[in-house]
Amino acid sequence: MVYLPSHDEAASAESVAELISSVPLAVLVTSDGKTLSANHIPLLLESGDGGGDRLIGHVARANDVWRAGNHVGESLVVFSGADHYVSPTWYPSKQDSHEVVPTWNYLVAHVYGELVVHDDPRWTRAAVARLTQVMERGRADAWHMGQAPADYLQRRLGDIVGIELAISRIVGKFKVSAARSSADRNGAAAGIEAESGTSPLVDAMRAVDQRVPK
Fold it and tell me: pTM value?
C-alpha cells in the first residue's frame, strides 16, 4: 500500500480517473507467488459489462505474464502523472526562518485488482480497436484497423493476448504541498511553472485553496 498522509489524498475520484485517462502508459506489477514482475503497458479505464470498472489492454504472446501462475493473487497498476522537484527557495517562509527543505511533488494513481486473461481474438481485437480510437482521437488522418490488410492484421492480433484488470480499489496520491501554507504552495507552483510551464501538477497545487472542506 502506498504511504498516504491525509493531506496527500486526491481531491476526488473524478480527478484520479482523469489522471489515469491522461497517462495510459502504466506499470503492471504482478507476482508468481515468489518474485515480482513489472511490465510497461498502455491500459484504458472503462466500465465493465457487469457495472464494475476495469482496465483493458494487451501484452505480447511471448510475454509470460499472461500465463497461469505468473499473476497470482492481486495485481497492481501504477499510473504516474506530472511531477517536479520543489526548491526551498520558492517558499516565501524561507525568508522568515530558513526552516525549509527540498521535496518532490507528483500525481500518481495505484489501481489494484485481479488480472483476467483473454486469449480470445474477438475480445483482443475489440480492445485494440478501442485503444487505437482513443490514441488516434483528434488526429487529422486518424489511423484505424481497417486500413491494414486483413491477413496481416490477423497475424498481428495472433501475436498478442488481451488482459483486463478487474478493479477492486484505486488509491490516488496527489502530493501538491497541501500541508504547507497557501503562500508557500503557490510560491512552489509559480516556481514549477517558471521552469516547465503550466501542467496538471501546477493546476492541482493551485486548486488546493478552492477545495470544499470534507
Answer: 0.92
